[in-house]
Every structure is written in structure tokens, then in C-alpha cells.
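Practice problem: OCRE domain-containing protein
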Amino acid sequence: QSQMMTQRRLVLPTAALCTSILLRSASSMSIAACKSILVRGSGETSVNGAFAPRNPLDIPAGFARTCHEMNWPTDVMWKKLSDGKRPWFESENESYVYWNRADGKWWIDEPSGAGKYIVFNNGEFPPNTGWTGLPGAKTPLPTVEIIED
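Answer key — C-alpha cells:
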């Protein structure tokens, strides 16, 4: 692979959470900065769209809802499942994408907090392809694009 930087247009404005640019090389993608991601092509329309990066210490609303429904301590569960380093990503409808350290997978969850798609990947950002639908998830499977400056 070349170490040429991919240039893409930022789809939605994000807070000054991450201000530098993502550097893509053959070996890694730097978390020195993060931009939005774009989930598209999914049969689950609620998870398609632009997602803004969020502070890894903040808890997604849908995650909190699921914990509440299951009578799990929300903050304890988030600390158990999130590594506290990688950003998670949230859409305007509160769908979210996060990396789960307990299973080593990136998850795409709908606004309720229900998981829809997963992919085993230890990267700093969700991969473009390789997603698998969880039981009941509609096809086609999504693709994820990292929006870079």
C-alpha cells in the first residue's frame, strides 16, 4: 500500500474534540486526530448516516438505556467494555459505533442500544468492510468510511 494520504470532504461539522488530521499509512491510522465516519448501505436504515466522534469517557445514550433496562451499572459496564482511549461515534438519531474491548469487535448499535452489526478488528477506527449482522439485523451489510480532511 502506498503511504499517500487520502483526501475526503468532511460531511458534518464536529466539535473541536479532535482537531488534527488522520494520517493513514500502510501500517496504522493515527488517533492524533479524528473526524467523522459515514455508515452507508445498511439494511438497518437507522444506522446509516454521518457519525461524529465523541469523547471515549462519555457514555452513549443508547448504551445507557440498555444498561438501565438490564439493571446493569452503566458506568461500570462502559468502563468494562470501552477502552477509554478510542473515540466512539454518534449520529444525530443517537445510533453509535464503538469498539468493545471485551470481544475485540467494533459494534454498530441502533438508537435503542441494540447491536446490529459487528466486525472483529482491533484498529483504532472501524474498518470499511467485513461487518456481520447480528441476529435479526437486515441486509445488506454496511460499509464504513472515515471522513478525512
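Discussion: The CA atoms of residues 13 and 52 lie 8 Å apart. Students who identified this feature from the C-alpha cells alone can consider the problem solved.
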